[in-house]
Every structure is written in C-alpha cells, then in structure tokens.
Design a protein that fits this description.
It is built from twelve helices and two strands, in the order αααααααααααββα. By secondary structure, it is an all-alpha fold. The protein has two domains: 12-134, Four Helix Bundle (Hemerythrin (Met), subunit A) (Up-down Bundle), CATH 1.20.120; 135-277, Helix Hairpins, CATH 1.10.287. A two-stranded antiparallel sheet has the order 1-2. α1 (12-21) packs across α2, α7 (136-151) crosses α11 (229-247) and α8 runs antiparallel to α10 (211-227). It is flat. It starts with 11 loop residues before the first helix and ends with a helix. This is Voltage-gated potassium channel. It holds the Pfam family Ion_trans.
Length: 295
C-alpha cells in the first residue's frame, strides 16, 4: 500500500480502505482476486466482440456484459475515492489513471462510436496481482532489470545511432543503384528496405534486382546477423553486474581484506573472521574480567 494513501476517517471509510487497498486479510485478498477475475473476463469479452462472426450472433449479450462490467468498475473506483482522505492524489497515481481509463471508453462510446475497443487497457489492472500475492521476488527482479537498463542506456543509444547511420547509408546507396521499377521509388522506401533487411526480418515486398544491389543486400544481411549480438552482450553484462551487486557486498574482511562476500554472510569465507563490525561475534570468547585476572 503506498504510504501517501490514507483512509479519510475512522468507521465505514476505514473498513472500506482496508478491504480495497490492503491485502493482509482474507476478505481483502478475496476482493482483489475477484476484481482481477472480473478484469480478465471483461478483457476477454472485448476481444471476443471484435470477432465479426461472434459480434453478429452475440452483440446484445456483449453490450449487456460490457455495461455491467463498466458499472461495477465505476462503483469500485467511486468507493476507492470515497474512502481516501485525498482522492485526487490517487487519481493522479499510476493505478488511478489505469482505473479511470478502464471505464472511460464505455462512457465515451455513447458519444464516439468505436471507443469501446480501448477497453483492453483494463488488462493493465491485473498488475494488482503483485500486491495481492506478495510476489516481492518479482519486484526485486524488476528492479535489477531497470538498473541494468539504466547502466547500459548510453551503450544502447550508441548502438542505435550506429544502426540508424547504417540504415541511411545503405538505403541511400541502394536507392541510387536500383531502377524505379524495382520498387525503390524514394529514399524513405529504400530506408524501409534497409531496416527490414538489417534486422533480418525480410518481408520480401521490396528487393533489389540488379547484381550490384543484391551484393549490397548480402552485406546488409551479414551485418544484421553480426550486429544482433551487440545489444544482447551489453545488456547481459549489465544484468550480471546488477545481480552481483544485489547479492554480494563490497565490504572488506577486517582480517584478510578479502571482498565479495554475500550480503547475509557473517564470517569471512577465506579466514573465518567476523564481518559485522557493528555487533559482536556471538561465538567469540568472553573478555576476561578483573576477578579472572586476579585468579
């Protein structure tokens, strides 16, 4: 539960707050699981309604179900705002925006035909399952992933800049080589071909027909296979670094100076010295008292 969200007062609002925003009790978990189930069912209804054959047969049923889901989610959002001391703060949060977007398309559908297709945004509300099931290990893994992305962003940007330059160079080159009847009628079309070829997608809707153009295509294809390994290696290295920093500490052993111990380690794996300097070693012999020394 975010620390910025607080119940409006004691009594009914507090009970609603504990039911809706917390997941420590059985009833709160049941509420969240029921809500997630409704979200998944409503998204499935939207998807099925997009199939022409099903829409022709069950259009009325789909409309009734959609309005039922919308009324339930609208009531749920109203209860969330009712039990908070600062409802506008929740509306500006990530989940508040998602909750609002999940009901707006149906109401907008009264004014804008086709707006109901935006209801698939409801699937984002399933993110609440992380709070319900207390899957903190996934949160930790997500933090490691974000750290790796942040550390490798400069290398990735440099890689993307290189890719863009190669696309412009080879696309312009093939545009100059190939005749218009081959499909390269403009530089943007040639750039599209260069992107498709360099990424090894190969749609085949446009291809060089001259021997020189095909030779350039071969070079671009080989470069595409060689380049694909670069971002993977960069990101993998940063992931390994983030995992090591998450698991291992850089604290040096006071006995031998060895580093790289696990964060929950208490003794040095090399010399056996006690690592936690803030707390005494429980297995260390007690200091001699004055009476012991006199004896």
């Amino acid at each position: 539960m975010p620390s910025s969200f607080r119940p409006a007062d004691t009594g009914l609002r507090t009970h609603l707050f504990q039911l809706i925003f917390e997941s420590d009790t059985r009833s709160a978990k049941a509420f969240d699981i029921a809500l997630i189930s409704l979200i998944l069912i409503s998204v499935a209804v939207v998807m099925l309604d997009s199939v022409p054959q099903l829409h022709a047969r069950f259009a009325v049923l789909f409309d009734v179900l959609e309005w039922a889901f919308t009324l339930v989610f609208s009531l749920e959002l109203a209860l969330r705002l009712y039990c908070l001391d600062r409802p506008w703060r929740y509306l500006k949060s990530f989940y508040g925006v998602i909750d609002l977007l999940s009901i707006l398309p149906t109401w907008l559908g009264l004014l804008i035909p086709g707006a109901q297709s935006l209801l698939v945004v409801r699937v984002l509300r399933v993110l609440r399952v992380f709070r319900v099931l207390r899957l903190m290990e996934f949160v930790s893994e997500g933090r490691i992933l974000m750290q790796a992305l942040q550390r490798s962003q400069r290398k990735v940007l440099l890689f993307l800049s290189t890719i863009l330059m190669l696309v412009v160079v080879f696309g312009s080159l093939v545009y100059l080589i190939e005749p218009p009847e081959s499909g390269f009628t403009s530089i943007p079309k040639a750039l599209y071909w260069a992107i498709v070829t360099l990424t090894t997608v190969g749609y085949g809707d446009i291809a060089p027909i001259t021997p020189l153009g095909q030779f350039v295509s071969s070079i671009v294809m080989i470069l595409g296979y060689a380049i694909l390994a670069v971002p993977t290696g960069v990101f993998s290295a940063e992931m390994i670094r983030s995992v090591r920093e998450e698991r291992y500490s850089d604290e040096a052993c006071p006995g031998c100076g060895h580093e790289g111990h696990e964060r929950d380690a208490r003794y040095c794996r090399r010399c056996g010295s006690w690592l936690d300097e803030e707390h005494p070693d429980p297995n260390a012999p007690a200091a001699a008292t004055a009476s012991d020394m006199d004896t």
